[in-house]
Amino acid sequence: MISPIEQFTRDLLSRRGALVEPRESGLDVMAAPALAATLGLAEYQRLIFTPDASAPDAVLVDYDSPLVERMGRLIEEVGRVAFVKGPAVNLKSIDPEAELSRGLTLLNGVFRCRGYAAALPVCFCFLFEFDILADERAGGVITVWVNPQTRSVPRMASWLRDIDLTDEEPPVAAGAEVILPWDLAIPAATSSIRPELQEFLESVTRRRDRDLHRLREYYLDVDREIRRKLARARPSDEARGRELQRLEGTARIYQARLLDVADRYRVRVRLAPLAVLACRVPTYQLTVRLLRRNAAADVLFSWNPIDGRLERRCCDGCHTAVDAASLCDDRVHYLCGRCLDACPQCGKPYCRACHVRCPRRHEA
To answer: Per the structure, how many domains does the chain have?
Structure first.
C-alpha cells in the first residue's frame, strides 16, 4: 500500500512536470533542471520512503526530510484551493415571502420579493489558524463559508463534519482564474474569533489589573517611607538631598515597571489562512428590491438548505455579515450600524460605502 507521503510526492512532482515512475522500492524521478535545482535533487533521482529500502544514491523521504520542506515551497506557489464534491441535498419548496420575513431585518427601509429560482453557486470554505498572544496564548482553527455571488456567509458547519473530500473538477470554466473573496472571508473570520478573543481579553484584563494594583501598592509604600524621612530631615541636611534623589528614582522605576506590565499584557492577534475548499452548493436565490425613501436597488439573497435559513448578507461598507441592516439614502447600500454611524465632527450619519470621509464641509 502506498504511504500518504509517497502519494503526495508523486502527485506534486507530476503536477510540476516531472516524469515519475513507481517502483517497488519507491519512485524514479526525472525532473527538469530548474525543478531539480529547487528540490536539491539530481535530474534523475531514486526516492525511497522506508529506511530499509536499499537503492544506490537514493534519497530517503520522510516527514523530517529537507525535501519535504522544499516541496512545501512549491505548494505555496501552486495555491491552497481544493475543489471538492458539494453536499448532496434536495431543495424543498419554500415560501420566499415567509423566509424573507424571518431572515431579513431592515431598520430604516422596506423590501419586496421579486421572485426566486434554484441555483448552484460556487461557495468557498476558508480554514484559518488564529493565535492570540499576551502573557498567555490561545488559538485554534476556524472555518468560515462565503457565497460571493450573493455576498453572504452561509452556515455550513453541520455539513462540514461529513464533508466528502473527493476531488472534483474545478467548478469554473477551463483555464479561468479562481478569484477568492478574501474581502468577505477575513471579516467573517474576525467575527468568528471575537467570542474567544473577548473571553481572552477579560482574563488578560483581570491579571493585568491585579499586577498593576500590587505594583502601585508597593511603590506607594516606598514613596510614603521616603516622604516620612524627608519630613524629619532638616533643610540643610545632606540626607535630605539623598532622599529627594531616592524619591525621583522611585518615580522613574515605577514608570518603567508600568511600561513592562503594559508590554507583558499587550494582546496580539494573528490570523493566517491554511486552506480553501471550493464546491457547488444547491441554493435558492431570491431577487429582492430594497426601498429607501425615493431610491431603490435590486440585490440577491441566498436561501441555504443546509440550515434551512436565509444566508446573512455582508455589509457593503466593511463586508461584515449583518443580522439587521440599514440602507443609505443615495444608493441604497446594505449597511451595518458602524457603516451608517454619525460623523464625529458634525454628528450627521453618512454611508461609508459611498464616502471614505464625511461629505459635509466642517468648520476648521
So the answer is: 2
Q: Which residue has the higher pLDDT, 89 or 310?
A: 310
* Residue 254 cell numbers, joined: 515605577
Structural domain includes residue 97: no
- Is 26 inside a domain boundary? yes
pLDDT, one tens digit per residue, over 88-135 is 788 889 999 999 999 999 999 999 999 999 999 999 999 888 888 888
3-state secondary structure 100-142: HHHHCEECCCEEEEEEEEEECCEEEEEEEEEEEECCCEEEEEE
> Is 189 domain-assigned?
no
Domain that holds residue 244: 196-270
* Of residues 99, 25, 129, the one with CA closest to residue 301: 99
Tens of pLDDT, residue by residue over 184-229, are 999 999 999 988 888 889 999 999 999 999 999 999 998 888 888 8
